[in-house]
Amino acid sequence: MRTLDDLLAEGVAGRRVLVRADLNVPLRDGVITDDGRIRAVLPTLRALTEAGAKVVVCSHLGRPKGAPDPKYSLRPVAERLQQSLPGQVSFATDTVGESASAAVAALNNGDLVLLENLRFNPGETSKDEAERSAFAAQLAAFADVYVDDAFGAVHRKHASVYDVPKLLPHYAGGLVLREVEVLRRLTGDPERPYVVVLGGAKVSDKLGVISNLLPRVDKLLIGGGMCFTLLAASGHDVGDSLLESDQIDTCKQLLAEASEKLVLPVDVVVARDISEDAETQVVEAAGGIQAGWKGLDIGPRTVELFAEHLRQARTVFWNGPMGVFEVAPFAAGTRAVAEAVSAVNGLSVVGGGDSAAAVRTLGLDEAAFGHISTGGGASLEYLEGKTLPGLAALED
């Protein structure tokens, strides 16, 4: 796999470099609420612009339906890039149309243009290879070389990720390389004890990664909404908590095969509704949750149980919050687990997505963690053992 350093050694002055970035940041009323993904790609953009490249950046944002939608515009991201980079940053109001063509043609050495949201074009995500390839060809026409620094998108077989590298000399950006290096440490020969913490809503989303990780880990701690299907499979009442009834038999089999490694909550915080002023109770998981109440966070005894396993760990991977952390009464479990992960005496990896958002939302020190991934879905699929199309394209 050729790298950004290889490209810089070849020389990029005057060359047009198409950078696939992951600028899929959360917006509220057009204002960026978390710029972590922007900051993550800045080193690559600075290295290229300072070396005199003409940089064309493309990214998706949100899930528009293959047509322009103002609420998913990347314009606020272009404004943030201009604040963060020393050179000239312009914004194209389309992806491969007149505005993009004119902006790319006008680039001087060291300048950068951000194209409008890739997903405004149906060809970006199309399952029709001809349509996807045609859109990729239009993107590739803007550049001499291609750099993928969008780790959060490498598990997608999309035009800008999978098809463009077939058309241009291609290189892995620094962010992608760092992500892969860390994940290889988790799947290779990690220092032990190796503890994984999984949360989030649905256990069905995590069954593949659980099955692949169980032979490798020493302990797998389960919280979040997904724990209630496993608790139900253990014979406990879960009240009105999130439950995937069709997964109970699968979870029973999982518990039978790996009960010594799986650690479930021993108590949970419950409420009748999700609100800032919700009436909450702590109940023992084995005692069950009454009808009308739902589990929304792990309880204090579970926090201490999880923290004890994390104190002993030398390698930790955490993906998924322990509760509805965005609402204050249900944030304590996620905060406590995040703090325990940050204190690990060894490699601590936050697996992107809601976990990374929780670190920032709760005001925790990002520098205290060994690595915060920019791609939750990509991280999980890598750990699940799947081939990621974007990485495969770079290795070709």
What does this structure look like?
There is one protein chain. By secondary structure, the protein is α/β, with parallel strands linked by helices. It is built from 15 helices and 17 strands. The strands form 4 sheets. A 6-stranded parallel β-sheet has the order 5-6-4-1-7-8, with helices on both faces. The protein is elongated and about 70 Å long. The mean pLDDT is 95.
Q: C-alpha Rg, in Å?
A: 22 Å
The protein's oligomeric status is single chain
Helix content: 25-40%
β content, as a range? 15-25%
Number of strands: 17
- Please outline the major beta sheet: 6 strands, parallel
| Structural class computed from helices and strand pairing | alpha/beta
Mean pLDDT: 95
The strand order across the widest sheet is: 5-6-4-1-7-8
Q: Quickly count the helices.
A: 15
- In terms of per-residue confidence, which ranges show pLDDT below 50 for 5 or more consecutive residues? none
Q: What spatial form do the alpha-carbon principal axes imply?
A: elongated
Could you tell me how far the N terminus lies from the C terminus, measured between alpha carbons in angstroms? 8 Å
